From TrEMBL:
It holds the Pfam family NUDIX. PROSITE patterns: NUDIX (PS51462). This is CoA pyrophosphatase. Its cofactor is Mn(2+); Mg(2+). It comes from Shewanella yunxiaonensis. Keywords: Hydrolase, Magnesium, Manganese, Metal-binding. InterPro entries: CoAse, NUDIX_hydrolase-like_dom_sf, NUDIX_hydrolase_dom. Residues 27-160 form the Nudix hydrolase domain.
Amino acid sequence: MDLTELRWRFGLGIAAPLRQPPGIPLKLRNAAVLMAFQTGPKGVELLLTQRPRHLKAHPGQVSFPGGKQERQDKSLLETALREAEEEIGLPANNVELLGTLPQHHTITGFNITPVVGIVQRPFNICLNPGEVSALFTVPLDYLLQPNNRHVMLIQRRQQPHPVTFIPYGDRLIWGATAAIIDTFCAIVSHDIQRITKRK
């Protein structure tokens, strides 16, 4: 899949609301992440970050550039773009915005809006060491293969909770990041059953 096909597949995708898992806090704080795609050595690739191990929240986990909506942000799109520039040095004016995915609720109390975009030109990577320890890419073709995306039910507070895992090389993408990737892949593949079956 190239970037042109990615654009029209995403535009035609059926962004059905997710069935949110049980145990979600009643009060959620708005946040946004940027799913940034670019053309790389292995075709279309998704940019992902690794969090430093010294952080209290989700140390060492794979994530998207993104974070909590701040008072100065006019929209969640602006939140995602601001965080991407702060975390990896990706200028907001270097991103072609395609749209958003359904909001993803987390058991840690966040309402995450995934913003989908395409990096238009190469940029000077500048990692914020307080938030990012590494930036890497995963080929979209790898992510689109259903057998590379695994959903397991894990008991939490005596209730089954779906957790998504995507192994890639020596890294493991899991949790909210993997679930958002799974939703994106289902949408561009027009796999409506996979989008709505999580419960």
